[in-house]
Amino acid sequence: MSSPNGDGANRSSAPIELMMPEVRAEIERGLRFAHVMMSVGQDQGNEAVAYVQALADVLVQKGLIREEELEEPLERARQEISKLMMPRVRLAEMGDKYAEGQAVEIDCLNRLPLCHARCCTFRFFLTKQDLDEGAACWDYGNPYWIKQGGDGYCIHSDPASRACTIHAQRPHVCRQYDCRNDKRIWVDFEQRIPAPLPEPSANVPVAMAEVAMRNAMRVAEAHGEGRSPG
Ligand code: SF4
Predict the structure, then answer these.
(1) Which residues form ligand 1's pocket by a CB distance below 6 Å?
(2) Is residue 44 domain-resident?
């Protein structure tokens, strides 16, 4: 993801009236994500706290455990839970991306006809610094992952040239990515032999929030509440 600079059209140059339906749809999707996450998290949290509190009270009252004995198993349980696949906000902290040594130097421009910038189809999330800058677009329905288009490429990858349209401010992950030993991209980097291109697919990212949303709707339907989203 160390694609070279490109002067291709940036989405932000589109007339605002043409962008409005898309912007509105993105904001709605983002709000749905936030609302679903709030209700899912709240329900699960309340239930878990009530259950554990009741259990601990019973055990202490019966003299079966002392309160301080709970600390170690509690920490173990926290670690197990952190491994579960849960919809969650991802935001990295990687320091200053403009600091010396943060950018891998590769002759991307010369290699684009071979590699087709397929590194720009990989999914990753932004850092706080990227977010504060506001140059890179993230997926409102899957914060703070890079936004991808329907072709599976990063939204900042120029469709004609595959150059990066925000090269100077590209995300930290893009700066640090080194394709030289990545077998998804090169059979042999030095010999300039690219790996076979993967089958084209409509690689639209599925937001983790949508999984939670579907589950929430299924539960609501089972209880005879609400309707499925359109
Ligand atoms: S911002 Fe997008 S187009 Fe630019 S290098 Fe990163 S993944 Fe590629």
Answers:
(1) 1, 3, 120, 136, 154, 156-157, 164, 166, 170-171, 174
(2) yes
